Sequence to fold (250 residues):
Amino acid sequence: MSKNIVVIFAGGSGVRMGSGTPKQFLEVNGKPIIIHTLELFEEHPAIDEIYIACREDYIPKLKKLLKKSWISKVKNIVPGGTSALGSIHNGLKSAVDNCDADDIVLIHDGVRPCVVPSVIDDVIAATKEKGAAVTCTPLFETPIHSAGGEYIEEIPVRDECYTAQAPQSFKFGQVLEAYDKIAADNPEFKGMVDSGSLMRSCGYEVAIVKGNRGNIKVTTPEDLYIFRAMMQYRESQDAFGFAAGETQSK
Fold:
């Protein structure tokens, strides 16, 4: 029987955050962001195993955090690569001995802690049916194309544009083979945006799965403020049993 695994890439340095601590280890409500992310998959019944590619100097700290947070599904932690896709490749390779080609692997960013369980269900179902799937949301702003960044060159049709998020999900054997193929000639994965674009470059069709708009990637200080606000909102819901901002009927 096939299983569902997750590869978390968390090798970033946090340069855009402007802090001395990698963004995935910044604390929100008493827990590092990566622990918030890992808990999503630890608590999801469809997920069997988790593999992490982390900044090498932070691996001992992460192991302590996993123990403290009672996270048991993590099977391996390996050093990240020089790029996000390099980290993903390392994570995939670390799972080879435990996975079959038909197992499903969800690839997820360590600083994307707000994906909802139903989206995880949907992306797994789409991968079983269609072979590969990327979580996306419709684009609400007007997209602009400009190669030089100075003048508008093209305005694509907004209704045909989406924002790619994560998780991005594939058959384990296919995505590992694709990563190996690209890495052989392009070890830095230059020109590759994410796993979906890599798979497309290797000729695979990738389905779109509708994601939740709150599934933000915490990259900048502004993102961190938004995530903190979202956590406060959730706490209000849990504490009072209704959406924050609403009043109970008398």
